[in-house]
Design a protein that fits this description.
Blueprint (H helix, E strand, L loop, with lengths): L2 E5 L3 H12 L3 E5 L7 H4 L3 E2 L12 H20 L13 E5 L2 H16 L5 E3 L1 H7 L9 E5 L3 E2 L2 H14 L3 E3 L11 E4 L15 E11 L11 E6 L2 E7 L4 E5 L12 H14 L7 E12 L6 E6 L2 E5 L5 H16 L20
Parallel strand pairs: 1-2, 1-9, 2-8, 4-11, 9-16
Antiparallel strand pairs: 3-7, 4-6, 5-6, 10-13, 10-14, 11-12, 12-13, 15-16
Helix pairs in contact: 1-6, 1-8, 3-8
The chain binds flavin-adenine dinucleotide.
Flavin-adenine dinucleotide (FAD) binds next to helix 1, helix 2, strand 10, strand 14 and helix 8.
GO biological process, one term: thiamine biosynthetic process
Pfam family, one: DAO
Organism: Corynebacterium comes
Length: about 350
C-alpha cells in the first residue's frame, strides 16, 4: 500500500483521503483549518441538471458521473462514522416568478432535455401540491428528480470523524513546500496555485444566508427550491437540522464579506418564491470564495511521478467531490479512472 499526503481538507481533500484510507493506503491529511474554505459556505446542491450552464458541455459528463457516484461515497463514509452527512434525495423544484422568468425556465429545460437530463414541466397547481409554501403567484415550474443535496458542514464533520476512525493522521499545519518523498494529492482549493506553477485559480465570491425555520412553519419546504426572479437566480435549501440556506451571489470583486444589497436581494427573491421566509429567524450571512479556473473546468490529473492535482472545482465542488475522490484513488493506484479527464489537464493553462 502507498503512503499518500493529501494537502487540503475541504470536501475534495477529505473525501479523497477517505477513499484512499478505506482502501488501506497510509494517508496523512494536512490543513491548518479543515473545512474552513469554500466547503464551509457552500449550498451543497448535487445538481447535475439544474446547474448546467450553456456551452459548458465538457462539464456535463463529469457532473453526471459524480452524481451517480454519490450514493457509493455516502455509503463508504457511513461505514466509518455514525455522524450524519445531510444527504437528501427528494429532488429539486425550479420555479419562475414572472412571464419572462418562465420563458427563461422553459428554454433552460429544453436545453437540459436535449442533453438527456431528466426534467419535467409541472402545472403550478401540482408544484404547489408538492410544496404548499410556494407563492400562489408564480409563472412556471419544473421538477428535477435527480438533483439532490448534502449538507457540506455536516458532511465535512462526518468525513473528519471517519478519517480519525480509520487512523488517518490529520496535521493541522499550512503546507508551504510539497512533501517530496511520497505520493502527494494537491487538493487545497485556491491555495494550490501557490504550491504548483501554472494553475490559474481566482476567487469567485458567493454570499449565502442561513435562516432558522420556526417550529410552527417547519418544514417550510421539503426539497430544494430554485428559481428565477427578475432574471436573478436564487435557491432555498431545507436542511435536516431545521435550517434553510438561501443563496447565492456570484461576484469577482475583492470584498470578502456580503454587501447589504446582496442580503437584501437574496431575501427579497426568496420571499417572492416562498413568502413564509419572512417569518424565519435570521442566523447568518457569509461569503465563500469558489476556486475558479479560466474555463470553469477543474484541474484533475497526475502531473508527475508523485504529484496529483485536484482543485479548481469552482461552482460544482460539492457535487464533483465523489468523482474527484474516485478518480484520484484510481490515479494513485495506477488504474484507469473510468472517465475521460483530458479536459481537466492541470497544465492546460500553463504559459510556456
Ligand atoms: C456560496 C457558495 C455556494 C456554493 N454552493 C455549491 C453547491 O450548491 N454545490 C456545489 O457542488 N458546489 C457549491 N459551491 C462550490 C464549492 O463550495 C467548492 O467548489 C468546493 O467547496 C471546493 O472544495 P475544495 O475542497 O476544493 O476547496 P475548499 O473547501 O476551499 O478547501 C480548501 C482547503 O485547503 C486548505 N488549504 C489552503 N491552503 C493550504 C495549504 N497551503 N496547506 C494546507 N491546507 C491548505 C484550506 O484551509 C481549506 O480547508 C459553492 C461555493 C460557494 C462559495
Amino acid at each position: 500500500m502507498t503512503g499518500v499526503s493529501v494537502v487540503g481538507g475541504g470536501l475534495i481533500g477529505l473525501a479523497t483521503a477517505l477513499r484512499l484510507a478505506d482502501r488501506g493506503h497510509a494517508v496523512t491529511l494536512l490543513d491548518p483549518a479543515p473545512a474552513s474554505g469554500a466547503t464551509h459556505h457552500a449550498g451543497g446542491m448535487l445538481a447535475p441538471a439544474a446547474e448546467v450552464v450553456y456551452r459548458q458541455e465538457s462539464l456535463f459528463p463529469l457532473m453526471q458521473r459524480s452524481a451517480e457516484l454519490y450514493p457509493g461515497l455516502i455509503q463508504a463514509v457511513e461505514k466509518h462514522t455514525d455522524l450524519p452527512t445531510g444527504y437528501r434525495t427528494e429532488g429539486t423544484l425550479v420555479v419562475a416568478a414572472d412571464r419572462a422568468d418562465s420563458t427563461h425556465l422553459a428554454e433552460l429545460s429544453d436545453y437540459q432535455s436535449a442533453h438527456g437530463m431528466d426534467v419535467e414541466r409541472l402545472p403550478l397547481r401540482q408544484a404547489r401540491k408538492l410544496e404548499p409554501s410556494l407563492s400562489p403567484q408564480l409563472a412556471g415550474a419544473v421538477l428535477i428528480p435527480g438533483d439532490h443535496q448534502v449538507n457540506p458542514r455536516m458532511f465535512a464533520a462526518a468525513l473528519l470523524d471517519a478519517l480519525a476512525n480509520l487512523g488517518v493522521s490529520i496535521v493541522r499545519e499550512k503546507v508551504t513546500e510539497l512533501p517530496g518523498d511520497e505520493q502527494v494529492v494537491l487538493a487545497n482549493g485556491l491555495g494550490a496555485a501557490a504550491l504548483h506553477e501554472g494553475l490559474q485559480l481566482r476567487p469567485v465570491y458567493g454570499d449565502i444566508l442561513r435562516l432558522g425555520v420556526p417550529d410552527h412553519l417547519s418544514p417550510l419546504i421539503t426539497r430544494v427550491v430554485r428559481g428565477f426572479v427578475a432574471d436573478r437566480p436564487v435557491y432555498l435549501i431545507p436542511r435536516s437540522d431545521g435550517t434553510l440556506a438561501i443563496g447565492a451571489t456570484s461576484r469577482e470583486d475583492d470584498r470578502p464579506v456580503p454587501r447589504t444589497s446582496a442580503i437584501h436581494d437574496l431575501l427579497g427573491d426568496a420571499i417572492r418564491l416562498v413568502p413564509g421566509v419572512e417569518e424565519c429567524d435570521f442566523l447568518e450571512a457569509t461569503t465563500g470564495a469558489r476556486p475558479g479556473t479560466p474555463d470553469d473546468l477543474p484541474y484533475l490529473g497526475r502531473v508527475s511521478g508523485n504529484l496529483i492535482i485536484s482543485t479548481g472545482y469552482f461552482r460544482h465542488g460539492i457535487l464533483l467531490t465523489a468523482l474527484a475522490a474516485d478518480a484520484t484513488l484510481a490515479l494513485v493506484e495506477g488504474r484507469d479512472p473510468g472517465i475521460d479527464l483530458a479536459a481537466c489537464d492541470p497544465h492546460r493553462h500553463q504559459e510556456f
